[in-house]
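Quick one:
INPUT:
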């Protein structure tokens, strides 16, 4: 049907006031204009909507049914239009966040807490994965932002919030700790459990050995996320390359011990990554909240 939304609104007011003159005053429209509105609707429906009742108007059977439907259309429209205002303001909407395995425990709780407190109508959709996988999600427009290890390239916007140090680690009773001093080549005497080759920390570690004219570590097990398998690492004589945040986390504290070696100490930043250009207002709001939070010098606490 070719019915204008304005005519539905006028019809609803006339039906409720049951008087063309009163409706004219309420809507600030002339009576002839409202009469033409009724005629347009009746022609489109092929049935009368009103009948005369004394000095006023009464709805016909068709008019009563049409009034219920017109009101529902108006209420639904108002709801969605109001929702659009909230969306534009950044106070409502959905943000698809990719999160690295480390920040899932460390930085993600801060993001969720800020959203719940300051933007409760923004829903978060969270995907856990490696930075390599999550960046592809941004490229495919499946993610709005990443909370994790930031890069130094300019493909995306990167904002660092937290310092992170990655070190070689092993079980508390690993034989390497019995040596009086530990050299880089000593690490090659043991098998390793390491991230898969595309992961940036794995690339960095491999480059360290190559730069020192040494072979790359012998990888016995590869996994796209190491923090979740710390129990396995602690029960073997495998060496690993993990964030110190993981070593210090209450869930893993005491299970693993750092193999102190300057050459294998990697310094990086944790923060947010998002595409250049226009962001959804909700994504912009979450980024704004994170910036405000960290400008105040607050750091998330491990639980």
């Amino acid at each position: 049907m070719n019915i204008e939304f304005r005519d539905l609104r006028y019809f609803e007011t006339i039906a409720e006031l049951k008087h063309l003159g009163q409706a004219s005053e309420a809507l600030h429209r002339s009576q002839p204009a409202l009469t033409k509105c009724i005629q347009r609707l009746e022609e489109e429906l092929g049935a009368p909507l009103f009948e005369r009742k004394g000095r006023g108007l009464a709805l016909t059977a068709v008019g009563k049914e049409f009034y219920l439907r017109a009101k529902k259309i108006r209420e639904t429209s108002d709801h969605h239009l109001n929702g659009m205002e909230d969306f534009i303001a950044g106070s409502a909407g959905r943000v698809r966040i990719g999160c690295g395995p480390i920040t899932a425990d460390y930085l993600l709780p801060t993001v969720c807490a800020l959203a719940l407190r300051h933007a409760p109508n923004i829903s978060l959709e969270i995907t856990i994965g490696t930075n390599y996988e999550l960046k592809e999600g941004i490229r495919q427009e499946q993610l709005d932002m990443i909370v994790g290890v930031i890069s130094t390239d300019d493909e995306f916007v990167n904002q660092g919030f937290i310092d992170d140090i990655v070190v070689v680690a092993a079980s508390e009773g690993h034989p390497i700790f019995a040596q009086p001093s530990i050299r880089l080549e000593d690490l090659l005497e043991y098998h390793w459990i390491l991230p898969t080759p595309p992961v940036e920390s794995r690339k960095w570690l491999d480059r360290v050995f190559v730069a020192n004219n040494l072979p790359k570590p012998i990888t016995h097990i590869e996994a796209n996320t190491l923090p979740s398998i710390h129990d396995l690492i602690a029960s073997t004589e495998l060496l690993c390359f993990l964030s110190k945040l993981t070593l210090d986390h209450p869930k893993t504290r005491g299970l693993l011990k750092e193999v102190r070696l300057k050459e294998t100490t990697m310094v990086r930043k944790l923060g947010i990554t998002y595409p250049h250009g226009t962001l959804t207002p909700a994504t912009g709001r979450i980024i704004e909240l994170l910036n405000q939070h960290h400008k105040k010098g607050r750091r998330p606490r491990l639980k």
